[in-house]
Amino acid sequence: MMNKYIMLSVATFLLTGCLTSNIPPPTLYVLNPQSIEVGKKVGKKSTKPVSIIVEKPSVVSGLNTDRIALIKNNGRELDYFAKARWNGQLDKIIQDFIIESFESNYDIIEADTSSRHQKADYMVVTKIRDFQAEYGESTNTPPSIKVSIIFSILKLPNKDPLNRIIKTKEKQLEVNSMQEIIFGFEELLQQSSSEMLIEIAQEL
């Protein structure tokens, strides 16, 4: 009985220590989309009647987390920033970003059930291949940011492929700070989604 009491006391102490830890929580970062009026870019008066499903992206192994990824040792080691997080898992925040980018131009249906396909004209399927900061030999120097996304446009209800758009963007940062890294991700994602919107408007 004494041994059980001691073990319980130790466990309680350890749990209390964790709850009262002075280690600060990680900073959460969000990505803000850029509003773009596609109709003005492609000479169409209105694209509003078109309804689009935006599916949750597939993400390569190691990146689908709320942790912000970095590559170091010249591309040989995957790691994560210790005190920073996205405000959600990467597939969900990219889906939300794309949906918000589309909303000023199209009627958007967030995909969660197959029955919703009957209500939409098109589907956008994405794959995230790169979404990381890349360092050379040292993490003390400014990294480059790399974002690579494949957008596939399908015509519903049969999911006939209309277009496959690959967007790969890179930016070398001048300053090695978390704020600049987040700005870099946001800028490249804004560029990719805006260019994709303009390209697929030719198809719809």
List keywords for this structure.
single chain; 204 residues; alpha/beta; nine-stranded mixed sheet; 4 helices; 9 strands; elongated; disordered N terminus
Domain unit count: 1
Query: What would you say the CATH architecture is?
Result: 3-Layer(aba) Sandwich
Count of alpha/pi helices: 4
Instruction: State the total count of DSSP E strands.
Output: 9
Structural class: alpha/beta
N- and C-termini, Cα separation: 73 Å
Q: Any low-confidence stretches, pLDDT <50, length ≥5?
A: 1-19
CATH homologous superfamily placement: ABC-type transport auxiliary lipoprotein component
Q: What is the N-to-C order of secondary-structure elements (H for helix, E for strand)?
A: HEHEEEEHEEEEH
Give a quick account of the main beta sheet: strands, pairing sense, barrel closure: 9 strands, mixed
Specify Rg, calculated over alpha carbons: 22 Å
- What number is the mean pLDDT? 82
Form type: elongated
What name does CATH use for the topology? Rossmann fold
Q: Give the DSSP E fraction (strand runs of 2 or more residues).
A: 25-35%
Describe the protein.
The structure is a single chain. By secondary structure, the chain is α/β, with parallel strands linked by helices. It has a single domain (26-201), classed as Rossmann fold. It is 29% helix and 33% strand. It has four helices and nine strands. Strands 1, 2, 3, 4, 5, 6, 7, 8 and 9 form a nine-stranded mixed sheet that branches. A hairpin with a 4-residue loop joins strand 8 (144-155) and strand 9 (160-172). The protein is elongated. The termini are far apart.
